[in-house]
Amino acid sequence: MLKRFLIYFRRYKAQFLLGILFLAIVDLIDIIQPLIIMYAVDDLSKPNAPSILLWYAIIYMGLGVLQGRGRFWYRIFFFGPSYKIARDIRNELFSHLQTLSSNYFNRTYTGDIMSRATSDIEAVRQFYAMGMFIGADLIVYVLTVPVIMFFLNVKLTLLSLVLLPALPFFVNRMGNLIHNRFKKIQETAAEISTYSQENFAGIRVVKSFAQEENQKSGFKQINDKYVDQNLSIAKVESVFSPTLQFIAAASVLIVLYFGGKEVIGGTISDGTFVAFTLYMGRLLWPMMALGWTISIFQRSSASMQRLQEIFGAKAEIISPPQPVAKKLEGAIEFKNVGLAYQGLGSENTQKEPALQGVNLKIPAGKTVAIMGPVGCGKTSLINLIPRLFDPTEGSVLIDGVDLRQYDLGDLRKQIGFAPQDVFLFSESIKENIGLGIQDYKESDIQRIVTSAKLSMVGADIEGLPGKYETLLGERGVNLSGGQKQRITIARALAKKPKILILDDCFASVDVDTESLILDEFQSVLPDLTTIIISHRLPVVKVADIIVFMEKGQVVETGSHSELLARKGRYADFYRQQQLITDLEKIE
Fold first, then answer.
1. 96-100, 474-478, 485-489: the lowest-pLDDT one
2. Edge-to-edge, what's the strand order for the sheet holding 499-503?
3. Does residue 35 sit in the same domain as residue 72?
4. Do residues 369 and 546 make contact, with C-beta atoms less than 8 angstroms apart?
5. With a threshold of 0.90, does the pTM exceed it?
6. Element at 51 (helix H, strand E)
7. Per-residue pLDDT tens over the stretch 355-386
8. How far is CA 427 from CA 43, 432, 433, in A?
9. pLDDT at 306
10. Domain holding 490: CATH number?
11. Does 324 fall in a domain?
12. C-beta separation of 301 from 179 below 8 A
């Protein structure tokens, strides 16, 4: 943790050191002021006391002006870099998350990531702002005030510091309690974020099932837990700071008693006693500051630890050191491929098998339809092609080269993918369709329009008030399900890929529109290796090869007529789907 903190400190070292310099100047002025008062009190009995006091007042006021300017600058140099560090951590966290494999997000809650990217980063920022500022302030006072007190009166200084040896043990104990309890608070904050994110994203489901009261009850339970945990750390801190203040106040009491006796006995002057008492007041602040510093550091340390868990996560899917540079032709081969997913939660190491012993060859430029019952592994199979996952057994080859030998970015740039889970960004339709176009320019608009027409969504877009400039709501909420799916198809086509993957992206499109889209595709399919996952029959007429899957395995491959002649599982599936289609037409 300390190394991680030092990384960001070194990045803005010059500004922090200037902040420490101005803080030291301010503190030294504050430490000099009791000496001025001491001399002023001792000079009260002199004949020319009024003029002397005037000079002391002018000096005191001048030092106060310097203090004001110094306070302005040290706040600039402490708080400014803290916001820049928070910005840097956010950028680095976001960039690191972009490098992580899909499997990481499968086992990590989105709300947990969001919580770390917000509240945990803010807790870390507080260390660089208030934590370092108060800590540096404390060090200056601790290193200077006791030294001056020794010069004023050794006996009183030793008496005032008699209670301090107990501090390290107390501080260590309280610091550990704060660290552990704050980490639990941040974990519960992540639960709140996850619960909120899921409910807001699924608000239509909540309302359609009339589950508002149940969801409110569930949220209240997590929220009450969060309050209880905050109260538990408040109890620790309510003991911590007052105990430190009590020790400081006890020290002041000792000074007042024994120092008063020294003044009465004539051992020390009135001015020295007043100055010594003021310096004891100066030591009250470091006592309180110590409590705040420990609390802030332990909170930020717990948050940095949670952030480090993300930074420490390694990408499972990366480019090789010396990738193969090759323009794809599109021939795909699966060799004895197996795939197992890790369960949700970073502590869950159990693997769930999705594919077993898959062997399949797809020639370049062919159109392949993958069919089979729900959960048979169709999506898992095609997710291996753009390396969203790597097989746990066997290998996947394109043009005879293992996918793991290609540069990850170059590979994905040549693959157009319309996933089953439709996702649109809250940007314009033009920007959504043109997402995969490299070095996008305004001249590429014709390419976007052509892709939209091929996916039969062009007419719908032209009917919107803003046409291609129409801004979409969250996840494309202002479009129908069919329009969203067709836009994702257009997005995949606009890349001009060599391999096109359509993962059940006709599910929200009616049969007639699906047939029209496939008819339009006839002009581009000969140039592509196309893989279409579908449960519906229109896809059969464009497929050169049909692959039928069950229970994570390929059970049949061949043309439509060949598979019907075999009277196997595909033939049964085809007859069932034909019956469903006929019933839909009757309705």
1. 474-478
2. 415-418, 499-503, 529-533, 367-371, 545-550, 553-558
3. yes
4. yes
5. no
6. helix 49-99
7. 898 999 999 988 898 988 888 888 889 999 99
8. 75, 7, 10
9. 87
10. 3.40.50.300
11. no
12. yes
Asked if 58 contacts 272 with a C-beta cutoff of 8 angstroms, the reply is: no
**Nearest CA-CA partner of 131 in 247, 11, 304, 310:** 304
Beta strands in 419-575 (DSSP E): 499-503, 529-533, 545-550, 553-558
Q: Does residue 17 sit in the same domain as residue 131?
A: yes
Task: Report residue 174 as tokens.
Answer: 């309280």
Query: Are residues 235 and 169 part of one domain?
Result: yes
Distance between CA atoms of residues 59 and 211, nearest Å: 71
Residue 414 backbone phi and psi in degrees, to 5: -100, 10
Q: Is residue 321 part of a domain?
A: no
> Mind listing the pLDDT tens digit for each residue in 490-521?
888 888 888 999 888 777 777 777 777 877 77
Q: How far apart are CA 431 and CA 412, in angstroms?
A: 19
Same domain for 475 and 513? Answer: no
d(CA 273, CA 255): 9
| Number of domains, the chain | 3
CA–CA gap between residue 402 and residue 406 (Å, rounded): 8
Name the residue range of residue 427's domain: 415-496
Task: Check whether 190 has a pLDDT greater than 60.
Answer: yes
Are 118 and 258 in a shared domain? yes
Q: Give the model's confidence band at 586: pLDDT under 50 very low, under 70 low, under 90 confident, else very high.
A: low
